[in-house]
Amino acid sequence: MGRVITIANQKGGVGKTTTAVSLAAGCALGGIKTLLVDLDPQCNATGAIGNAPVERHPLVDSRPIREAVAKTDIENLELLPGSQSFRDVDALATQADNESRLVADHLAASLSVYDLVLVDCPPSLGGLTRTALATSDEVVMPIQCEYFAMEGLTQMIEIIRQVMTTDNARLEFGGILLTMYEPELELTREIDREVRDFFGDVVFSTVVPRDVALAEAPSHGQPIMNYAPRSQGARAYIELCQEVLDRV
């Protein structure tokens, strides 16, 4: 089985879904057989590549997961679509530990045909995020360059440590990604220094700039590489794809 990477942060609006979609699309365009898993009840990752949510989430449906995987317009990229069903969201989010482990095993058993799997989580520290982490090899955390970034980072790291201890000993910290980066702002430069001083090489060299094209692309059902391939955002995520692939 290839690498399984969860994109997670309990804060919303930090570029989590944009990162999951852009990494998935960029790696697929580079010839890597990729699966994007949408675990967020908002289903933003599903819509961002031009697909529609499903009535029942594949992880609680009785069908084999391979039957629920959807094709996309991007070669080498497939999607396990999200569901907005309150019943399914509640079922996934309130599982006991043993049920969460079963769901994780069910998902993992279907991933062997892919070189890379990227999982988009909801902005929370709840059951859906823990299920994703229990299935993954790595976790990537996008953080916005703002005042509360470090506080949120500390909370997320504690959850990751708990999962490493109780659910998934192979889980590693894949990296921290600075998003909505505005180098002309002193606050951005200060957060950059603090995060790199504390976490060192865990922080990706690539930073994702604040770019209106990144905000526009999902409304067109396209990843940034297709919507605005010459934009700053597209260039940043292409560089991030290479950096992620180099971290093997």
Automatic annotation (TrEMBL):
InterPro entries: AAA_dom, DNA_Partitioning_ATPase, P-loop_NTPase. It is an enzyme of class 3 (hydrolase). One of its GO terms (molecular function) is hydrolase activity. The keyword Hydrolase applies. The keyword Transcription does not apply. Its EC number is 3.6.-.-. CDD domains: ParAB_family. SUPFAM superfamilies: P-loop containing nucleoside triphosphate hydrolases. Residues 3-172 form the AAA domain. Keywords: Hydrolase. Signal peptide: none annotated. This is Soj-like protein. It comes from Aeoliella mucimassa.
